[in-house]
Amino acid sequence: MRYDIVSDTHGHISEELESALQGADVIVHAGDICSDIDLLHLETIAPVHACYGNNDWGYDYGPFVMHNITRFFSEGLRWEICHYRERLDLETCEVAVCGHTHRPFVEKDPRTGALVMNPGSPTYPRAGYPSMGRIIVEKGTILSAEIIRL
């Protein structure tokens, strides 16, 4: 399964991002979507799991986008999505996704072993380049986790 990870799109899905998302099995969005239409568009590419960001409070994305933390179970792994890294509960998941800083990273938590990813931002990067993340999982095993420059 291919999980494409995005955050902080802020109401703009670029052609580069849309192209990179083609073929995803699942899209995980860690908040600051800032557009009902963009969320609907992402859902035409693949099923979306998402949470609200600090700029999303005026939107109603429906019952499956949680305001604080979104949790789901997929491909044998417990996933957690929260816009803010400091609010992630790494004791209760194997994969944690955050956003907010617009700075990409992927790391393994030394205490819990959970994979933690911030995909950066494809729209307003603060690391010098637009980015997203990609996690490949097979039968409960994470095969790869990477940041992709757009």
From TrEMBL:
Any one Gene Ontology molecular-function term assigned to this protein's record: hydrolase activity
Keywords: Metal-binding
Cofactor(s) recorded in Swiss-Prot or TrEMBL: a divalent metal cation
SUPFAM superfamilies for this protein: Metallo-dependent phosphatases (SSF56300)
EC number: 3.1.4.-
Main enzyme class: hydrolase
Domain of life: Bacteria
Annotated Calcineurin-like phosphoesterase domain residues: 1-135
Similarity comment: family membership: Belongs to the metallophosphoesterase superfamily. YfcE family.
Protein name according to UniProt: Phosphoesterase
Species whose genome carries this gene: Parafannyhessea umbonata
